[in-house]
Amino acid sequence: MTVIDPDAQAAWAPGAERSADRDGYPNYAEYAEYADDDYADDADDEMPLSTRLSIADTLTLGNATCGFMAVYFTTTGVLIPHLTGSEDGGMARHSAATAVVLMLMAAVFDLFDGLVARKLRSSAMGAELDNLSDLISFGLAPAYFVAVWGMVADDAHQRISMVAAIVVLLAVVLRLARFSCVPMRNGMFQGMPGPFGALTVVSVVLLELPFVPTALGILGVAWLMVSRVEYPKPRGRLAVAMLCWIVLSMGLLASWAFDAPGGELLLQTGCALQVVLGAVIPLFATARRVNAFRDNRREARAAAQG
To answer: Which of 20, 101, 103, 118 is the most buried (most CB within 10 A)?
Structure first.
């Protein structure tokens, strides 16, 4: 028979020293109560601030849904007909346009979920939901679009296109990770924003340039997304201008999809403007920063002389 020393047992029983019976044995009923209280306190400490979805989180989930549906339409309307030999030019055009429109809708959801979160509130998991949704809509969807383009285009090289698609995906992953860890200057993004980068990548593909310029353009956009080039955040008038530009782009895509007169020319014009904006916007931001730096130096010199 095993004999247990009461003093030794009291020593190794956690919390047993809090209370003991008159005989010197630990009061295990009271210890169980203390243990339950400690566990409850630990559980309360580990509970998230909020697990309820806010309005902003619902918009973020709409962003993710649009990204997934863009992949779906690219697969069913472009890739599968090409692989099965049943491709129809009009159907492929409609599906490609639908996929791009869904990416544009994801950008609208991404624009409004930030505005709503600032005006109302966001749950504790809002930032994580936003990153995951952006990865689907502005990382996976455009990268998949590039990969499928490399498979269906006449002059494309599939392996090089796949490398370009992977580079786009990894650029978005790295950009989102950096955005979560590195503090940014107020009112500015470091690197091309994900939605803008995704739409620029798709615009480069829809321009239907020769393979080499298209691949170089895609890689250039991926570099801009992970670069330290600053882009202004879409707030105020800039947010309104961006929303108008998205609506106009949807109209251009619709005219192209339904083969309207001049629709293809309008689409290529819009795509060219998107690419130009991607290159010009950081130049304006850099010029403003240089002018602000010069003004500060002038003020410092004036203060020193005075």
So the answer is: 103
